[in-house]
Amino acid sequence: MATNAVYQFLKVQNRPYSANDITSNLQEFSKANVHKALDNLVESKKIFEKIYGKQKVYCVVQDGTQEPEEFMRIQRELDLYLPQITSKKLELERELRSKEAELAALKSSLSLTEAKNENTRLLNSIKKMEDELETIISKNGSENFGEVKTCLLKKIENYTREYSKRKRLCAEIIESILEGFPGTKKGLYEEIGIETVDLG
């Protein structure tokens, strides 16, 4: 039944078709049935197949009464059909590579069980840090750590300002001494016991 239906379809259409195209048009038959019908028709020489790369197209064998122009028309259609098949093949190959990449990404990602275990580990880590913070707060009373930090920064700023003033004053004194000192600045440092050159 499928063999006759496939033959009649190709005969009426009178143009090349691939097995997939025939299956799409004859949806009452499975792909396997269509392929088997095509093999039978090729074997019985009612149709012929032409291979383009990895693709096959099928066309009805014309009887001897056909005009040469008809054969040329069929050949032109076969030639026109080639770019369509090639384009479809490239499209399917691109889609296949994309799916393979998605599959590889899924394989390399965490499984559901691994993701659950990682989530549990992170939650435990957060709980541990929260407990440590609570311990620190309890040991230091209910002080606001933001205020403590601000206070400490202010003290550091005051100490730095005072240090800069004294450093500048000391540098001025040393420069005054150097005006009447016969040696070098390094010699003066050694003589009065200054161990750093930070004041220079």
From TrEMBL:
Coiled coil: 82-139
Keyword Secreted recorded: no
Pfam families (UniProt xref): WHD_TBPIP
GO biological processes: homologous chromosome pairing at meiosis; meiotic joint molecule formation; meiotic strand invasion involved in reciprocal meiotic recombination
Main location: nucleus
Domain of life the protein comes from: Eukaryota
Key word Coiled coil present: yes
Subcellular localization: Nucleus
UniProt keyword annotations, A-Z: Coiled coil, DNA recombination, Meiosis, Nucleus
Assigned GO CC terms: condensed nuclear chromosome; DNA recombinase auxiliary factor complex
InterPro entries: Hop2_WH_dom, WH-like_DNA-bd_sf
Molecular functions per Gene Ontology: double-stranded DNA binding; recombinase activator activity
Domain annotation Homologous-pairing protein 2 winged helix: ranges: 2-60
Family according to the record: Belongs to the HOP2 family.
Protein name: Homologous-pairing protein 2 homolog
Organism: Neodiprion lecontei (Redheaded pine sawfly)
